[in-house]
Amino acid sequence: MIVVGAGVVGAACAYYAARSGLSVAVVDRGPVAGGTTGAGEGNLLVSDKEPGPELALALLSTRLWRDLAAELPPEIEYETKGGLVVASDEPGMAALRAFRAAQERAGVRSDCLPADRLRDAEPHLAPGLAGGVLYPQDAQVQPALAAAHLLRASGARLHLGAEVTAVLRGPGDAVRGVRTPRGDLLAPAVVNATGTWAGRLAALAGVTVPVLPRRGVVLVTEPLPRVVRRKVYAADYVADVASGSAALQTSAVVEGTPAGPVLIGASRERIGFDRTLSVGVLRRLAAQAAALFPVLAGVQVLRTYQGFRPYLPDHLPAIGPDPRLPGLLHACGHEGAGIGLAPATGRLIAAALTGAPAPLDARPFRPERFAGGAGEG
Amino acid sequence: MTPRRTPADLVRAVPGPAFEIRLDGRPLTALPGQSVAAALWAAGVLSWRTTRRGGRPRGAFCGIGSCFDCLATINGRPNQRACLVPARPGDAVTTQEGHGRADLTV
Fold first, then answer.
1. CATH of the domain at B47
2. Is any Cβ of chain B less than 8 angstroms from the Cβ of A260?
3. Helix or strand or coil: residue A257?
4. Which of A333, A295, A331 is nearest to A314 (CA)?
5. What is the pLDDT of residues A324-359, one digit of tens each?
6. Is any Cβ of chain A less than 8 angstroms from the Cβ of B2?
7. CATH number at residue A130
8. ipTM above 0.95, yes or no
């Protein structure tokens, strides 16, 4: 099979397909992790997901990442550091408690922290917060290294710097490979793992998958001692993630890294593939992070980076065979959760290709579900 | 033997009067317009930071603000790029141990 896209989702598809005995080639117009994977923070989160298909995918992925961490080298920086969601006032805390209770019934572990215990967990947190919820299953990897080591472990042949210019069809119109400027690659199955650019590859194949870019910016501070132990974020982040609005949303998501810098996100805006630096967005993120961790007000930001989350209108990825074109599969549209959801996605794709039973119900992720004009753009 | 030429000679600079800065309390001479790194180099100091993990010595490498190797604590503020910060009379430069933020450790 051929995987188009050398991000973490493509890498996970290659890894699990190869482990199922398939011969795999991975092709990408750029380098490994050159798109959204390389612009992420590497979060493996269950805390921000309400019960439903995405949470089921995240819970399976959480278990798979733990197995992968045992098999892949320590350079992937897998850390089971846990997440801490904080509420600034009592109504926010009540909403957080209700959210947590629903998640618990779906299999998410968590602990409520009253206000007076918050600073035992995170000593630099601002005073005056109403409380928080601790999620021990939240973890992190270094996303670019994780993708690279997954690819290496898969043994897949890599064709980097080779842009797919056509999806080749064979007898009966079924997919038989892809065309690149360096030659044709032939296989009876092609997986579209091109993330935010998946709509373009789908169009080459004559089908529609309405992926849109949702821009996010991350601030990187100077290296610090471990002033932030977990991934810490404000409760309104969950509402921002679930929102479909094109307008700018920001909510502080703050975390330390093994290398020392603190990473500050998260912004969301749908403005196409515009890379123009927005000082206003940086200012809002910095202010929100300093409100959560006052110590950060005196810390320098060394640089910022940005990326484009692959957004689908119902916030669920497209995973599985495309019934409109035999031989074409999709593994794309994971929005801001692609690193976390990659292993379960890879398992679903491998199961679809080998006829093995699916590890979970894949119907909510049907790639053709937007046919009939439900999408935008 | 040709007399040793300084960078100031090469560009025929006529700097204003020299002033004093301090490195870990030791007085050094700096010229107006010099960066902190240039003043330290001119005084024969090549290292003013130790790395975070191995404690190895570091000083100016790129000299143009890109590599962040020349970080120093200047007037109590850690992680200043010495190659970009202009030296000012009375500046107190401190050799920086690691990230220079040990005060934030919890």
1. 3.10.20.440
2. yes
3. coil
4. A333
5. 999 999 999 999 999 999 999 999 999 999 999 999
6. no
7. 3.30.9.10
8. no
